[in-house]
Amino acid sequence: MTSSMLNLRAGTTERLARHVAVQLSNLFPDEGLDVDIDSLLALVPRALERMQPILAAVRNFDPGCFNHLNSLQYTSFLYLLANERWRSGAGDALPERLFCLNRALNAVDLFYAVELPAVFFVSHGLSAVLGRASYGDRLVFFQNVTVGRVGNRSPVLGRDVVLFPGAQVTGDAVIGDRCVVSAGTHVHGLAVPDDTVVFTGPQGVVLKPRRKDYIGLYLRSLDE
Q: Of 27, 36, 147, 224, which has the fewest CB atoms closer than 10 Å, so is most exposed?
């Protein structure tokens, strides 16, 4: 499926580019509205292509539709636009402005140089900060989550990981595949094996085998 095959709430890619450009011009003006529209027109199709696996995976989304008025979808889209511009090596202020726009509108910190996986779901991502780390595919995260390096030590997250509200993964922590970091739990410098639930007990961090399909609550399986 190409981006042109998506049903866009905005109607066309041109109208979607103008929508973003007007917001940028109002909040973080730079070289003018027309320049922003031209720049965004080159980015929107590729960003929409990258939205498709997200729309297809998230249970709450319609796989064939992109709705820029859905804040969760729009949060991901603005990150993808900024990341696409940064990848292009243009060297201008547009990625930073798109990053600032995302923070202003959606209160989420998704830096454009951070490489998120092909499928990620921002579920109520207010105050979430996803910094430099290695992210496995099909990541789900909630509000107040922090992922970040400490000095030169960066976390590694596996596939099908769920980070519940207030979870923190820092330093050289390693989170295995199909793991869950429970609400308010801080994992630092710890290797968590596959299929584990991490939570905070009276004596600190506790690991237990995962017995529930948490990721399936939010993402469709690959064969659905």
A: 224
pLDDT at residue 2 tops 70: no
Long-range pairs for 23-28 at CB < 8 Å and ≥24 separation?
Answer: 23/101, 23/105, 24/97, 24/98, 24/101, 27/100, 27/101, 27/104, 28/97, 28/100, 28/101
Instruction: List % helix, strand, coil for the chain (3-state, nearest 5).
Output: 35, 25, 45
- Cα(170)–Cα(168) distance, integer angstroms: 6
Name every residue whose Cβ is closer than 8 Å to that of residue 114 and which is 6 or more positions away in sequence: 83, 130, 131, 132, 133
Average pLDDT over residues 164-193: 98
> Angle formed by the axes of helices 13-27 and 94-106, to 10°?
80
Is the pLDDT assigned to residue 4 strictly greater than 60?
Answer: no
37 in Cβ contact with 17 (< 8 Å): yes
Tokens 């399986």 belong to: 221
What is the domain class of 120-217 according to CATH?
mainly beta
What type of residue is 17?
Answer: A
- Predicted TM-score (pTM) of this structure: 0.96
Contact 93, 99 (CB under 8 A): no
Domain locations along the chain: 3-107, 120-217
